[in-house]
Amino acid sequence: MTKEFAIGSKVRVVALPPYVKTADPMPMLRPPDVIHLGEEGIVLDRRPGGYWGIRFTRGAFLLDSQYIESTDPSSESESDPGNREQGTGNSAD
Q1: Does 81 have pLDDT greater than 80?
Q2: Each residue's pLDDT tens digit, 24-68
Q3: CA dist 30 to 12, 47, 60, Å?
Q4: Distance, C-alpha 86 to centroid of its chain
Q5: Thinking of the domain 10-72, which architecture would CATH place it in?
């Protein structure tokens, strides 16, 4: 199953692929050491094939969703409907 990320959200590298592809108009393959495990980046866009364009400190690269996870706490609370119901302050129920 492919994970979904909001454009502009922060993500973290949780595993390194065998190589990375640049997010240029003519993508090129680079060794995986241009990004580091645990490095954070910002989602730029969604690409075909389950790839995400992500801006890191050393450039923009395309990564499959299996190599990244969201670091935004707001996306975690939105995915759990139980968190939204707690503390609403409605005592009329």
Answers
A1: no
A2: 999 899 999 999 999 999 999 999 888 999 999 999 999 999 999
A3: 19, 18, 12
A4: 27
A5: Roll (2.30)
C-alpha–C-alpha distance, residues 18 and 6, integer Å? 25
What does the block give as tokens for 57? 């400190």
Domain definitions of the chain by residue range = 10-72
Q: Which structure tokens are listed for 28?
A: 């090129």
Confirm whether pTM is higher than 0.85: no
Residues 6+ apart with CB under 8 A from 66: 3, 15
Residue 7 has pLDDT above 70, yes or no: yes
Residue 89 CA: distances (Å) to CA of 21, 29, 85, 93: 48, 53, 9, 10
Q: How many Å separate Cα 38 from the centre of its chain? A: 12
For residue 26, which amino acid is it?
Answer: M
